[in-house]
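Run log // design_07
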């Protein structure tokens, strides 16, 4: 069936809330797929980036699922075909012709994965940014030079019930099965985090959380702060400390990876914990970009690793080794995504991703 000439897209506006616009359906570049979007899921970066996006008229959204509507000339026809069920990521708030929150989008074929028949498209759209962010924090930061950690290896994950946190637990279990995983999150999420593979779970809002973690007697040298706002990094770092006397520990001997720049840390991080490293999932897309008024060049190794990990998802989902994170299907479609943003900004999204139906389908 031929594509319509125009489509609806949820786009940024200058000093105003995003809105729905009618724009031309994009044409795929030689290495791209044109996707008829079925479902999209929301990430914190979507509403945060949209709020400061300059210039305006950029399509918002990164995570999607859908079906292949057409193939670029250079796409391997043995890998993709018309009608294939696909999930993947695109750079939201960056282009005026493509982004997840639209009826159609174009995406790099290497950053798409086949969705097994056993996984509904509604669930498949929750994979993408969270999966890649976990990859970057683990394999491209903490374990980049530690491919064979010992049996005493311990990983602490702060805000483990976030999309990234839940994928981090799953990837850690998959790639480093002997690692002892400590997850910090609200109590209502503890059963799920244990099911995903966390060895120990604690309430990060408890006054005793630092002492509770230390009582495990683990030498915690690796950590990930999946929230990275307010005093979360300082609290996570304190949990990684073996005792109260920071001066007795080697400076920078412990590493805590953040999802936002170190300049946004509130409070004093113990000197023995290095917390100036952070990840930015947009580098997975293999092209240069601007973020927070800073230019970031293309990172070929990030692109290569991300394309490999997304490609592996099909088999992992088929076997049940990896499962999509919980989600909440929201009422409405593209025009109602702003309501989802309001839910996120109000702190009413916990332990799940918000999903919107665009074109639908199974």
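design_07 sequence
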């Amino acid at each position: 069936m031929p594509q319509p000439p125009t489509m609806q897209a949820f786009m940024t506006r200058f000093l105003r809330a995003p809105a729905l616009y009618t724009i031309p359906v994009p044409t795929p570049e030689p290495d791209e797929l044109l996707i008829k979007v079925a479902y999209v899921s929301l990430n914190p970066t979507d509403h945060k980036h949209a709020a400061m996006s300059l210039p305006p008229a950029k399509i918002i959204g990164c995570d999607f699922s859908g079906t292949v509507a057409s193939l670029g000339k250079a796409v391997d026809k043995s890998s993709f075909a018309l009608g294939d069920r696909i999930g993947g990521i695109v750079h939201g708030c960056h282009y005026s012709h493509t982004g997840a929150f639209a009826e159609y989008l174009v995406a790099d074929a290497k950053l798409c994965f086949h969705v097994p028949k056993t996984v509904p498209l509604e669930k498949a759209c929750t994979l993408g940014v969270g999966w890649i962010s976990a990859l970057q924090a683990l394999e491209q930061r903490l374990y980049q030079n530690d491919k064979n950690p010992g049996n005493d290896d311990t990983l602490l994950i702060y805000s483990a019930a976030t999309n990234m946190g839940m994928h981090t637990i799953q990837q850690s279990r998959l790639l480093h099965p002997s690692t002892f995983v400590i997850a910090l999150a609200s109590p209502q999420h503890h059963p799920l985090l244990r099911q995903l593979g966390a060895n120990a779970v604690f309430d990060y809002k408890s006054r005793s959380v630092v002492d509770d973690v230390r009582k495990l007697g683990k030498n915690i040298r690796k950590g990930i702060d999946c929230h990275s706002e307010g005093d979360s990094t300082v609290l996570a770092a304190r949990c990684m400390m073996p005792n109260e006397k920071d001066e007795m520990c080697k400076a920078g001997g412990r590493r805590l990876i953040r999802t936002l720049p170190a300049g946004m840390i509130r409070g004093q991080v113990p000197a023995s914990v290095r917390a100036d490293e952070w990840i930015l999932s947009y580098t997975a897309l293999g092209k240069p970009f601007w973020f927070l008024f800073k230019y970031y060049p293309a990172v070929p190794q990030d692109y290569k690793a991300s394309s490999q990990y997304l490609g592996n998802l099909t088999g992992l989902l088929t076997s049940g080794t990896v499962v999509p994170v919980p989600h909440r299907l929201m009422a409405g479609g593209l025009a109602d995504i702003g309501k989802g943003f309001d839910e996120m900004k109000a702190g009413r999204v916990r332990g799940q991703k918000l999903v919107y139906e665009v074109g639908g389908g199974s």
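The longest helix spans residues 300-319.
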